[in-house]
Amino acid sequence: MAHVRQQIRERIVSVLNTNVTLVSNRVYGTRVYSLTEADLPAVVVYAGSETSALQTVSLKTSARVVSIEVDAYVRGTSNFDNDVDAIAVQIEEAIANDFNVNGLAKSAVLVNTEINFSGEAEQPIGSAKLTFDVRYDTAINDVETAR
Fold first, then answer.
1. Nearest residue to 101 (alpha-carbon basis) of 4, 38, 23, 8
2. Is residue 54 classed as helix, strand or coil in its secondary structure?
3. For residues 64 and 30, which has the higher predicted lDDT (pLDDT)?
4. In DSSP terms, which residues pair with 73 in a beta bridge?
5. Nearest-5° angle of CA 15, CA 137, CA 54?
6. Is the peptide bond before 41 cis (omega within 30 degrees of 0)?
């Protein structure tokens, strides 16, 4: 089995691949590979920071919050704001409809959105970074099983 954080990330990738039709199944669960113009529009999902705290001493339960970053990339056309907003709608609604991340989490809530434009590459790129706080619990000695 895998860390619950990985299971959450993989579930979100799967949900977005199914529901974010504007990127035609180009939802990636890694930041390792660069996107080319042919890959756009696309969505990249990855875990950012995570906090944890001992929730109960007797049950040795850790309450965790992982920031799941969902980056949407589009070609930088004159409509890039509308394009990233349209993709953001599909991302937000897809994750909201799987609020408990298929039972792995207590909640998945959008906490921040940043819209950016970069003209530094050969093809200008517009992007939106959506940050979701995903709250979940594990035993301190079993991080592969959600509680």
1. 8
2. strand
3. 64
4. 42, 127
5. 150
6. yes
Closest CA to 134 of 115, 114, 106, 112: 106
Provide the 8-state DSSP code for 32: S
The structure's pTM equals 0.93
Return the SS3 of 133.
strand
pLDDT tens figures, 109-144: 999 999 998 876 667 889 999 999 999 999 999 999
Question: Where do the structural domains in the chain lie, given as residue ranges?
Answer: 4-146
Look at domain 4-146 and name its CATH class. alpha beta
Q: What is the largest CA-CA distance in the chain?
A: 58
The SS3 call for residue 43 is strand
* Residue pLDDT, tens place only, 24-52: 999 999 877 788 888 999 999 999 999 99
